[in-house]
Amino acid sequence: MDLEAELALLADADARAAGYLKSVEDRPTFPSPQSISGLGALTGALPQSPSDPKQTLALLDEYGGPATVASNGPNYFGFVIGASLPTAAAAERLAAAWDQCASSHVNSPAMAAIEKTAGAWLLDVLALPKQSGVGFGTSATACGLSCLAIARTGLLERLGWDVSAKGLAGAPEIRIVVPASVHITIKKALRLLGFGMDRIVYAPVDENGRVLSDQLPPMNDHTILCLQAGEVNTGEFDPFTDIIPNAKAAGAWVHVDGAFGLWARASRNYKHLTNGIELADSWTTDGHKWLNTPYDSAVAICRDKTLMARTLNADAVYAQSEEDAQKNLTLEFSRRARGLGFWAALHSLGRDGVEELVDRYCNLATRLAAGCAEIGIPVNNRVVLNQVLCAFDNEEKTKRFVSAVQASGKVWFGPTVWQGKAAFRLSVSSWKTTEDHIDRLIEELARHM
Fold first, then answer.
1. Confidence class of residue 316 from pLDDT cuts 50, 70 and 90?
2. How far is it, in rounded angstroms, from Cα 267 to Cα 339?
3. How many CA atoms lie within 13 Å of 85's alpha carbon, on the beta-carbon side?
4. 317: pLDDT strictly greater than 90
5. Sign of CA dihedral 147, 153, 155, 157
6. Structurally, what CATH architecture does the domain formed by 354-447 represent?
7. Are 440 and 376 in contact (CB under 8 A)?
8. Is the pLDDT score of 82 beyond 90?
9. How far apart are CA 438 and CA 77, in angstroms?
């Protein structure tokens, strides 16, 4: 393919993408059964012969587009998923043309500088220790795995055991303490690291999903304690000021899972929810949730950057690099610059814009909760952030209600289980969602009552 044909193909892709964006507010929030059945056109055996690239693109657009979930629109309230900010999405398009391997400075001086700056800006806006290491990874799951691996390495080093050299056979046992309401991604990371699920110690939580600080299991210098900033159902925060100083005094490592809740630190109105969180040893958060970066962008932050780089080091004889190269702070060696979306979003929003984004989602969630209560939908949480948790007294009614609203195609949110009973979760996390969209959501909910 010559340059002229390549540019024509990219222009066609841009035109198709623009058409999709124009339609996103009016298309079904979840695809119809007919659209899903149309995906058969994209399956089947691998073609024997090459295809015209224009035909390949057209096939994706014609059959893939209708079967997408309109999570890039204003009417999606599931899984704390928001629409990508235009600047961040545009930066990703530009980066696709650059096609850089963002492992280190020698691979891409541009991406190395951009991601290093994005890390510094992130620590600034989240008011976390400025000397921390920042690794931009694929997801909060992968970044959580990184942080927990670093935690284990650090604790074992203090105990005189070099896990990188000796492995785990014969090593002092590391004890894991997590909230009873711990997110599944933390459990997955612990499982992959070899911490048996039967050996995890669960800290009791209150009716809001917050760890009860006076009922914490005993901790010592063999302990990794995981806490939460933004419980997945209620949006609540563990009492960090009551817990972390005691944990650190006992010699424990404290990790905070802040996939969406960590962003509360960017707002003067909500930062108090995270008081004391800066005392932890490591943190994770997502970009695609609150900051509305494109998908596949999250971050692992570790107070001890040297320990982080030593644990995750990927230097080879043919690829020596700076200690804080991203390949030494993440799980990936060859990688795209996942910090680029953070850089573009933070640069375009500025500190004030990020704060406005946090405040807006929280205000819209408060409006939504009030509307739900007004039409007779019980709200089961205090709505401290952007999560609205609801359930009817009758579990079957709750399940039928969720199914009926989902089937309408007008809006989408997902079911959950809270305190052993069926419930549903409404997450406000898209820059495209306005008060009008919240009011229309309430009207749609009322229609199915």
1. confident
2. 22
3. 24
4. no
5. negative
6. Alpha-Beta Complex (3.90)
7. no
8. no
9. 10
- pLDDT bucket at 1, cuts 50 / 70 / 90: confident
Q: What angle do CA 221, 130, 355 make, to 5 degrees?
A: 110
Distance from C-alpha of 174 to C-alpha of 155, rounded to nearest angstrom: 8
* Other Cβ atoms closer than 10 A to 2: 7
Kindly indicate the confidence band of residue 299, based on its pLDDT and cuts at 50, 70 and 90: very high
**Joined tokens for residue 267:** 């707002």
Q: Which residue has the tokens 């002229």?
A: 4
Whose structure tokens read 């994005």?
Answer: 118
Angle in degrees, 0-180, between the axes of helices 340-374 and 435-447, rounded to the nearest 10 = 50
Residues 6 or more apart from 69 whose CB is under 8 A from it?
A: 29, 30, 31, 76, 412
CATH of domain 91-345: 3.40.640.10
The structural domains of the chain, with segments of one domain joined by +, span 3-68, 91-345, 354-447
- Which pTM value belongs to this model? 0.96
